[in-house]
Amino acid sequence: MIYLPKTQPAPACLAEEKLKPSGSYNCGDVLQRLQTDFKNKCYICEEKEISSINIEHFAPHKGDKDLKFDWNNLFFACGHCNNTKLAGFDNILDCTQTNEVETNIKYLMKPLPKELVELQTLTKDEKTLQTSQLLERVYNGHTTNKIMEAANLRSKLLKEIRKFNDLLFDYDDDTFDILDKENIKNQIIRAISDSSSFAAFKRWIIRDNQYFILNSKTYFPEML
With 64 labelled, which of 42, 165, 204, 212 sits at a CA distance of 20 to 30 A? Predict the structure, then answer.
């Protein structure tokens, strides 16, 4: 999860659909706008180019038309995360409003087979704790089906982490010339950009590495 603010104003069709007896919030360019705002990633797990696209209500509308058609309440999610969140996670951090989804939680994935994701809460407020609990279920699973789905998700995450670590090692390799180094640096910057899959994990790799902490303001100001 990373901070991804939504574009404004809301799609005009939402106000029109709200007035209809059986109006749809999946109207006009709503889905396209959500896909763009959330960088074509599920806002919870950060998997990119998801195959099971859900328009999720961040706060369950439960028939409330204001919540049902509220642009700020519509999010871009995958089926795995949406179905996991349905299990009662209604008090989590809003990634469109705050970067605390990233700074209050440390995202860790060891680049080894069969490893589980580790999430460390750095503050103890209720929203942070519930967000961390949701993410733990998303990445590690909690029922038979969800455990299998989570394992597939971690497999994709692991491949990204391994590629990212290779970039960091290459950047520290003095056998590369200046042009090579610049190319590697640009790849690292893209890998920690908002549009990159699993960016929260990659950014924490940078934050946890003393060398990159010391040099990040010079080499990676985009992250800071």
Answer: 42
Structure tokens belonging to residue 199: 């960016």
- The answer to which of 116-120, 141-145, 147-151 has the lowest mean pLDDT is 141-145
Per-residue exposure over 78-92, b if at least 16 CB sit within 10 Å of its own CB, e if not: bebbbbbbeeebeeb
d(CA 39, CA 89): 23
Q: Is the pLDDT of residue 87 over 80?
A: no
Q: Model confidence at 213, in pLDDT bands (50, 70, 90)?
A: low
